[in-house]
């Protein structure tokens, strides 16, 4: 893989990252790190991954001009990086295909994953079906109830769904259950983490598998605009779609990078999932990053209209980009995201995921204060078919 220039020793991004795990997992993380180093040095691995991205995922995804959204904002020219057109409808498949290949390389037969809304569960089950790997997905009981269609999809794809009844019965509890299972099964099981979070080497490994988004965007901008874009805007949950597009532009200071977090209902604790905007340094799910927590260090309850952004942590590399000032992070409230969901549908004929709608809302604000000869790229991380039912509930049926 071509990009590892800002991987730092032992998985640290400034003061963030590292490995905060029980002793039983250290050997598995070492094995993964070794398999990953070995794979990167093997041109056959890169070739097979790239073939799968092309023939199975459908890459490269287009970079589409958005003329009516551009006119609506009345400033910079707006472009959409179309991860919504990737197989299964979002960027998550880039990572699960890569990690399924690594699973096979390590000689393991079984995969586990955590899922919140079910999107990472579906992407993992898809990759496992393609490679004939046994797949078990951990999902909180509350999420199973809210996302029953995704539960059915995972079952169709041959995965087993383990319902987690602990705690708030959502993503955080599912992640804890998956980690516990991994400790007992690590000799034959790989844990496919769904974002740029978790203990080293996951944050850099997932970012590298997602960096195909940034490489394609760079090439497409050079081909279509003859230069790099002025600004790139992406939504940030755990941070994988944003890291995948940002990482290829980190060393280009003239390209402004903007991460949009879920502002939810209000700035009050429990009402949002704006980790970098409101959080503090802490350890969550195996690495040191910025975390939403109370004064006792208890992880906060979070809220967003978009299930994929509803997470109290964020990848350690984002915490570092935030601290260094290289990337600007802001939040967009539910109401603005829902407005942007409708706008992109009406103006461009693309129904975006509610996660991606946060990036669209942020980008519209930014585009207004930019010049017409400037270019802004939105990472359209996924399609919104999965959110149509929720949007109907929030908006009421449209006339
Ligand atoms: C899961 C998801 C996200 C959030 O995850 P990141 O790791 O922050 O990218 C964003 N958009 C879509 C469409 C998703 O499915």
Write a structural description.
- This protein is of the alpha/beta class.
- It has two domains: 159 residues, Rossmann fold (3-Layer(aba) Sandwich); 217 residues, Rossmann fold (3-Layer(aba) Sandwich).
- Helices cover 45% and strands 18% of the residues.
- Strands 3-4-14-9-10-13 form a six-stranded mixed beta sheet, sandwiched between helices.
- Pyridoxal-5'-phosphate binds next to helix 11 and helix 15.
Offer a concise description of the structure:
The protein is α/β, with parallel strands linked by helices and 399 residues long.
What are the defining features of this structure?
399 residues, alpha/beta, Rossmann fold, 2 domains, six-stranded mixed sheet, four-stranded parallel sheet, 14 strands, 45% helix, globular, disordered N terminus
